[in-house]
Amino acid sequence: MPQGAASSAGRHSPADPRNGNSELRATRDLHLFGQGALNSELAFEGKAASNILQHTTPSDGADFDPHVDPSGKTLVFASTRHSRYSHLYLKPTSGAAITQLTDEQANDAQPCFSPDGKRIAFTSDRAGHWDIWLVDVNGRELTQVTNSPQPELHPSWSPDGRQLVFSRVNPGSGCGELWIAVLENPGIKRLIGEGLFPAWSPTGRQIAYQKARDRGSRWFSIWTIQLQDDEAMYPTEIATSSEAAMIAPSWSTDGSQVAFAAVRPARIDRGDSPDPRITGFGRSDIGIVDADGSGLQSLTDGRAQNYSPCWAADGRIYFTAKQADTETIWSLRPFSPQPPEKPLLPPFRRAAQIPPHDES
What we know:
mainly beta; Neuraminidase; five-stranded mixed β-sheet
């Protein structure tokens, strides 16, 4: 993979990197684009989260890349639990039964439910290079959307289900590019800008993505662009830190907030550049920010390596957590203080702030 692709937005390894196979180690790099082996405080406000739940149990392999269907009832994820290759699996968010969706001698990763919940877009190397594919939730009707020697990664659906935005790694510049494919005519694809791991807003007007400060840098921040008449306009940086790389955005269902992973470097090569390069990673936490760039919060405390967030319809954020040698899927609910049923004070007086509480 090109420089800057060694640390993905939490899009994980389809294989155990310790087995010495260079091809599988390169496959692992797919999920690292700006995030990596994950220890220290993040530079934004910590905010506790409630109702932390574990959705998959440790196995011989790893579970990663969670995504939840629009109903909030079904979880899809990638896993190496049954093979050295990563395959896609389905399970109820509140149940234990797991159904294997794909089973090829190839790696499938980064699944994303369509807005109607009937199809899943994902990244696969089954054609010899990383491309975007579609499959029905019953495992049938497999369709290849892209076919390029350049790595094409991380699909995200438009709200009407007619288009996909994805990222492609330009081998010449080493930069990530944002592309849109029209599913009714997959031959139509258009470049909309520079970036990686895009997420299409449920409102349809914005796309969030991660972008490096300069070419080759792994010091990422979270950006949004506005879509107007098929044109991408007004690139806006909404989450950045001098202490962490911010990656892998995921929108809340109302489009008002963005979840992401914040990765703190363990080693920095400052050299002579004003923008130092990250050469190692310490820890990763899940954070959120309002779509206008305010309200930056950290939701996890760094006790595990947390990445690959996905915001579900019930307000929970699903993510991958790595603890020791296990990688499993968890979820949490950000604290959202609720107003009292009756005013504590008359309307002409200012009520005291209500502290956060568990809203389960």
